[in-house]
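Please decode residue identities from the backbone states below.
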């Protein structure tokens, strides 16, 4: 079972790397208004792939959690701690994020609305918090290894 999961994960990783390279190259290709249809189609395919991947991940996580809950209830409840941490960081980020419309004199787009600004702020604050926590964890493990 683990060998199959490793093979599937390896293939998926290479597919994601190939897609990343494809979109990175797309940024450097000089496109005109007439030939941007293929870019739109590729991005639509990527969005669908992203949502399918997120859905599969959520379903697999729920399935594993329910199986653990049935087998070992106490250990399964411990696995809820990361979800609780994520929820706490989300609530803190939501309370800190601003939905104030930005003053941009030459901007005439439709993205300067309070709800989009609030969600962008939440995403940025959560990214900063988890980036900081990751950095602290790396430093902690390095310092801990020195004193062993």
């Amino acid at each position: 079972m683990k060998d199959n999961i490793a093979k599937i994960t390896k293939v998926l990783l290479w597919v994601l790397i190939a897609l990343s390279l494809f979109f990175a190259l797309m940024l450097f290709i000089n496109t005109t208004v007439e030939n941007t249809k293929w870019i739109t189609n590729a991005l639509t395919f990527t969005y669908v792939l992203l949502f399918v991947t997120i859905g599969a991940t959520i379903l697999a996580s729920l399935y594993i959690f329910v199986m653990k809950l049935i087998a070992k209830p106490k250990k399964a409840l411990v696995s809820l701690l990361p979800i609780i941490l994520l929820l706490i960081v989300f609530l803190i980020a939501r309370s800190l994020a601003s939905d104030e419309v930005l003053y941009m004199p030459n901007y005439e787009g439709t993205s300067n609305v309070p709800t989009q600004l609030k969600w962008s702020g939440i995403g940025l604050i959560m990214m900063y918090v988890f980036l900081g926590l990751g950095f602290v964890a790396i430093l902690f493990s390095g310092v801990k290894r020195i004193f062993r």
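Observation: The radius of gyration is 21 Å.
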